[in-house]
Design goal:
The structure holds two protein chains of two kinds. By secondary structure, chain A is mostly helical. Chain A contains twelve helices and two strands, in the order H-H-H-E-E-H-H-H-H-H-H-H-H-H. Chain A has one domain. A two-stranded antiparallel ribbon of chain A has the order 1-2. In chain A, strand 1 and strand 2 form a beta hairpin. Chain A is globular. The two termini of chain A are about 40 Å apart. In chain B, about 75% of the residues lie in helices and about 0% in strands. Chain B has two domains: about 120 residues, Four Helix Bundle (Hemerythrin (Met), subunit A) (Up-down Bundle), CATH 1.20.120; about 40 residues. Classes of the chains: A mainly alpha, B mainly alpha.
């Protein structure tokens, strides 16, 4: 361990991952708009570039050149802090996702993740998810606007409620895998029953993912038909863009985490011979989960707020507890 | 190297806690508390206690401060009125007195136990160690704490539950 391993390589890796993540996020917006259009028998954006492929670029340029307005009635430091607090957890979540097997480059062994090998990486996922509430809450409070505040309160209640089943399902995963290191979770061999059982639990996890990233049918913070735009009402220009980007970033990173935890991450045929296939498999699987996100958004209408709460506490939580209990029995009985 | 990080995060934690007391706005106070908890988590990391660091983030930063801000938003009375301190000026001196007592006790225990207390237990903050200690040596206190928490939860539900009129009779 010298300074190249400790400082230079992490900085290069971090910059590269950031670049890839932000580019992918930009194209995720196009991906979603195109897909939604298809679901609704429309064409979707097709003006900028071939097949609308330059649309994200056009959006970015437009948002860059917007005027930065800070309304006079807001609490300025918190108002400016909120978009950052929304974006940082969405990016930070990606730190534990292993992109592929360790790479040998210039005689060095480079692990393709920022820190997934520590024995608390699973807990890190939960910790980051729990901090993700701040952006929305602070935005709602600092905006000094009733609609914003209502949106923020709904969101914090929603995120706290759905964190619980998420943590319980992650605990069941921990029972099956026996390790909190995400790298080991990907690499360890697993009997067939364990895979099948994990996939049975995945729908529960997916529901909590939808709620944590505030996506339809759980997109309560926005609910444009009752709360104008919820916590984003007072935000415009690039600060709005930051919220917008962080929502999609959160979708992207949480999908990558779900793939890593439940679907073997970068593993796939021929990865042992060609390690660079690892990131490709991870990307393909992540796109599959993202397709699920969009599919759900196109098909299921938004819940009512009381339905959301009673679903979280009366159905999702008991079901995940049952899942945990059965997992414990299965692990003892079958291994 | 360790000392640099310790100094950095220690100062950050102190700045956070002073900010909590000095802020005139309850939400700003809560945010400074967040800084303090984050710095404490980083201090745990410097000590090699990864599990404790993340538990600190998960429980304190992720749940407790969120709850604080949630309550402040519900009550909606963020700015502090100095009424109490104006009516009873001796309160400030009492606070200073308690602070001095705390510094004396903390300093005394630190000097008596020595600075080396945390060393020699390299993995005391690892998941396995915490789990083993919690569920073997301290099982009874752990279970007692969970019973107390359960009782508090049930109490809160009973206090907050609306009493509904019996079915079939219109409300007056």
């Amino acid at each position: 361990m010298d300074w190249v391993d400790l400082v230079v390589i992490p900085i290069i890796k971090g910059a590269l991952i950031l670049f890839i993540l932000l580019t992918a996020t930009a194209y995720l917006t196009l991906f979603e708009r195109k897909l939604i259009a298809r679901f609704q028998v429309r064409l979707g954006p097709n003006r900028a570039g071939p097949f609308g492929l330059l649309q994200p670029l056009a959006d970015a340029v437009k948002l860059f050149f917007k005027e930065e307005v800070v309304p006079g009635h807001v609490n300025k430091p918190v108002y400016l802090l909120a978009p950052m607090m929304a974006m940082v957890p969405a990016i930070a979540l990606f730190a534990v996702v292993p992109l592929g097997p360790d790479l040998s480059l210039f005689g060095r062994r480079i692990p393709l993740h920022m820190g997934g090998d520590v024995n608390v990486a699973l807990l890190y996922v939960l910790a980051i998810a729990s901090v993700g509430t701040y952006g929305v809450m602070l935005a709602g409070w600092a905006s000094n606007n009733n609609y914003s505040l209502l949106g923020a309160m709904r969101t914090s209640a929603q995120m706290i409620s759905y964190e619980l089943p998420m943590a319980i399902i992650v605990a069941s995963l921990l029972l099956v895998t026996g390790t909190m290191s995400v790298v080991e979770i990907v690499e360890q061999p697993r009997p067939l029953w364990a895979w099948l059982w994990l996939w049975l639990g995945f729908p529960l996890y997916f529901i909590t993912m939808l709620a944590e990233s505030n996506r339809a049918p759980f997109d309560f913070p926005e609910t444009e038909n009752e709360l104008i735009a919820g916590y984003q009402t007072e935000y415009g220009g690039f600060k709005f863009a930051v919220f917008y980007i962080s929502e999609y970033l959160h979708m992207l990173t949480s999908s990558a985490v779900a793939v890593t935890l439940f679907f073997g991450g970068w593993r796939g045929p021929f990865v042992d011979q060609f390690p660079l296939l690892g990131p490709v498999y991870l990307a393909l699987k992540t796109v599959a989960i993202l397709f699920l996100y969009v599919w759900v958004r196109a098909s299921i209408p938004r819940l009512r707020y009381d339905q959301l709460m009673s679903f979280g506490w009366k159905y999702l939580l008991p079901w995940s507890l049952l899942y945990l209990a059965v997992t414990a029995v299965l692990v003892v009985a079958l291994s | 190297m360790e000392w640099v990080f310790f100094g950095l995060f220690g100062v950050l934690a102190l700045v956070g806690s002073v900010g909590v007391v000095v802020s005139r706005n309850a939400v700003h106070s809560a945010l400074f508390l967040l800084v303090n908890f984050a710095a404490t988590a980083l201090l745990f990391l410097v000590l090699g206690a990864q599990f404790l660091a993340l538990a600190q983030v998960l429980v304190y930063a992720g749940a407790i401060v969120v709850l604080f801000i949630f309550v402040v938003m519900l009550v909606g009375n963020e700015t502090v009125d100095d009424f109490v301190a104006r009516e009873r000026p001796w309160l400030r001196w009492a606070a200073v007195g308690f602070f001095l007592v705390f510094i004396a006790v903390a300093g005394y225990s630190l000097v008596m136990s020595g600075w080396e207390a945390a060393k020699g237990l390299a993995d005391y903050g690892a998941v396995e160690r915490v789990g083993a200690v919690l569920y073997r040596e301290y099982l009874l206190p752990f279970e007692l704490a969970s019973v107390i928490l359960l009782a508090a939860m049930i109490g809160a539900i009973i206090l907050a539950a609306r009493t509904r009129p019996p079915l079939g009779r219109p409300e007056e």
